[in-house]
């Protein structure tokens, strides 16, 4: 019984005060939970922090400040349940994630210790356009909420969330999208992580994967062997000239789902999809006769630190990001997508990646089993702030968050 596991609203001291649906609430009509606050009623001063701390707006174009954020996150950000691995987002990745077209420095919110200026907490917002069911919204995507390990459970997170909310309201934004491994009131969807071994030996050595009982390592390695070369005709790295066609392909493909990003400008597609080495890699398929693009896929690079291992310091992981498949026949999509993602595995392997990850959203369930992805322990819950709507299966979700 899931509702026994979930805390009821009254026990969420903070979340019970926020405009989010309650667990168990039935939803009849989609819409905002509270009305927009008129500008003159929005608080103009930052929320009060405990007296030893101060607010700071991070300037990520400054190498030192970017490095401070990198250090905070690399030591204190998300770990798996067994505290064996921790995300290790690179500085270049953080710039990509936090400086899309239209980004605002005021949404890169830090907390420093007043006495020595050490950065000890952070939360970010970026502007985004999404469609949820039939409703188009310009809103804020919240990510990288982090409180230093030594300052946990002191109710700093609610202050950070209220402050980024205030700063969103000041920009005329009253809805947000965010994802979390933890269950809060109230997910609009829940996706599961899947992992495809590319370097099974290292994954076993780091305890990322467990060797199945009575399976010799050699057989485990053989199971995950891949061809040396890709097989989709016309597959090639995406270049800047492809941006307009990729934008069309992506927005058309997204019409299949209920909760999707809307890419309004070529500038956004260039930012979010075009290859940036060691951050995101993108490939397109060009029809060899018509020279038109028919498909594309992308994956981003997010290593994890292996906590306290003698030999291996990091696992090189990539995550499937956006893609689009063009097939006139719905039943042809499965084969087409399997071929494309198999090529993505091969390309990632050539980049020395250890594991290829994805969630069971978009049409990923069409290839997860056949391409030997294994179910992970992790789940990702999708949330909206100040928006009430029906929940949906993960196969209706198109938004991929970093
Ligand atoms: S999810 C990743 C979150 N970060 C991590 O897991 C890093 C490691 N953990 C930490 O740094 C992706 C801390 O444990 C954090 C909590 C900071 C998570 N989301 O300060 P207290 C995102 O970044 C609630 C939301 O004592 P702490 C998405 C918790 O339920 N709430 O805890 C972020 C409790 O409230 P309750 C979370 O451990 C979305 C309260 O915080 C949460 O020292 C943010 C406890 O606070 C989470 N991941 O710090 C929401 N984890 O009511 C955006 C815990 O249950 C909303 N809590 O008592 C939209 C805002 C914009 C709106 C615009 C209109």
List keywords for this structure.
about 25% strand, 13-stranded mixed sheet, 2 domains, binds 2-oxopentadecyl-CoA, about 25% helix, disordered N terminus, globular, single chain, about 400 residues, Aminopeptidase, alpha+beta, 16 strands
Question: What do you see in this structure?
Answer:
Mean pLDDT is 96; it is low at 1-5. Strands 1, 3, 4, 5, 6, 7, 8, 9, 10, 11, 14, 15 and 16 form a 13-stranded mixed sheet that branches. This protein has a 3-stranded antiparallel sheet with strand order 2-12-13, with helices on one face. The protein is 23% helix and 27% strand. It folds into 2 domains: 2-188, Aminopeptidase; 190-382, Gcn5-related N-acetyltransferase (GNAT) (Aminopeptidase, 3-Layer(aba) Sandwich). It has helices at 2-5, 63-76, 91-98, 156-169, 200-205, 217-223, 243-254, 266-273, 333-350, and strands at 53-57, 85-87, 108-113, 119-132, 135-147, 176-180, 189-197, 235-237, 259-261, 280-286, 293-301, 304-306, 314-315, 317-324, 355-359, 374-385. Helix 7 crosses helix 8. With 402 residues, it is an alpha+beta fold. The radius of gyration is 22 Å and the shape is globular. It contains 9 helices and 16 strands. 2-oxopentadecyl-CoA (NHW) binds at residues 12-15, 76-78, 140, 142-147, 152-158, 161, 164-165, 168, 173-176, 178-180, 182, 184, 385-386.
